[in-house]
Design the sequence.
């Protein structure tokens, strides 16, 4: 089966959740648990944002030994230098460059024409190559970017030296068909696409982050970016645990898998919830308190006879001891 790489951004995009503020010790504690979970890549922060974030990224870089540690950077030299400083001591450092490409961002945020975006992206990637052998480039707001221009940007990123090209649905606007089609088109039309990994980064503004990530996998994505418990900017990011269990539970359909240690999911979820202060809703898929609870009498009767009648995966799979059968008014006399 095809391996899907997991890029965890709980410490960067996740910390952008309103009200969340992790200190250095907390970031390192979460990073070490993510390492136990088996994520492939950990985005530790945005070093140019503040001296504190630079120090936190450096602390994570020095603590983590079995995952690539990543620093985020705008496509500008001073940001790249900040990431270089922050990732000193990392076993496997990687820089994550981004530049907006959509018409609305080009016009209102960057005030740049297409050719200027291409020039800035090329210059940043080539500058980053002085210090990094692993470079991820993100076309911010790729979902709302003209498909032909996105192909052009991806082609340039490959030729300039990027090793991963990320296609973010930055504002959670895409539907699964549209988002999957972007990956399909890139795979079919961009020269040299087989030399790099394609990554999917989705937001949940319309409640489609997980399904869009899965659509990307079905259309050739090599990496999924997300957070634990789906935390993140605005309505959050793709929930890593949802993607992992979807691939595990429906292997025959997706023909792809992660190499996560699934039994560490519940522990990781609780740690992130505790340190961020973001409570996991009871009905949250996979890690919610009610995810393996059955109160309906009909369901309870079925589960007592054969668990698979109403459980498509076992709580033990994610590190829980068992499900629950809460007795309520709907449980019935039997």
Sequence:
């Amino acid at each position: 089966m095809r391996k899907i790489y997991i890029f965890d951004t709980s410490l960067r995009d996740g910390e952008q959740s309103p009200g969340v503020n992790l200190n250095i010790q907390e970031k390192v504690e979460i990073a070490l648990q993510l390492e136990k979970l088996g994520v492939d890549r950990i985005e530790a922060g945005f070093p140019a944002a503040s001296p504190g974030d630079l120090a936190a990224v450096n602390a994570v870089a020095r603590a983590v030994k079995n995952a690539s540690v990543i620093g985020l950077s705008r496509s500008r030299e001073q940001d790249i230098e900040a990431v270089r400083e922050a990732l000193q001591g990392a076993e496997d450092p990687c820089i994550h460059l981004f530049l907006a490409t959509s018409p609305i961002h080009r016009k209102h945020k960057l005030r740049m024409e297409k050719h200027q975006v291409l020039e800035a992206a090329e210059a940043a990637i080539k500058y980053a190559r002085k210090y990094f052998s692993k470079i991820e480039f993100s076309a911010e707001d790729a979902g709302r970017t003209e498909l032909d221009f996105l192909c052009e940007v991806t082609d340039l990123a490959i030729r300039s030296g990027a090793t991963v090209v990320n296609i973010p649905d930055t504002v959670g606007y895409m539907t699964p068909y549209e988002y999957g089609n972007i990956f399909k088109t890139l795979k079919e039309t961009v020269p040299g696409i087989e030399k790099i990994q394609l990554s999917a980064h989705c937001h949940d503004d319309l409640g489609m982050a997980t399904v869009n990530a899965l659509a990307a996998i079905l259309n050739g994505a090599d990496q999924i970016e997300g957070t634990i418990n789906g935390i993140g900017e605005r309505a959050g990011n793709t929930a890593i645990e949802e993607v992992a269990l979807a691939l595990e539970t429906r292997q025959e359909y997706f023909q792809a898998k992660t190499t996560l240690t699934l039994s560490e999911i519940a522990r990781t979820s609780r740690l992130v919830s505790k340190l961020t202060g973001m409570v996991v809703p009871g009905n949250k898929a996979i890690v919610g308190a009610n995810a393996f609870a059955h109160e309906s009498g009909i369901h309870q009767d079925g589960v007592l006879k054969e668990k698979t009648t109403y459980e498509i995966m076992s709580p033990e799979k994610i590190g829980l001891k068992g499900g629950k059968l809460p007795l309520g008014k709907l449980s019935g006399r039997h």
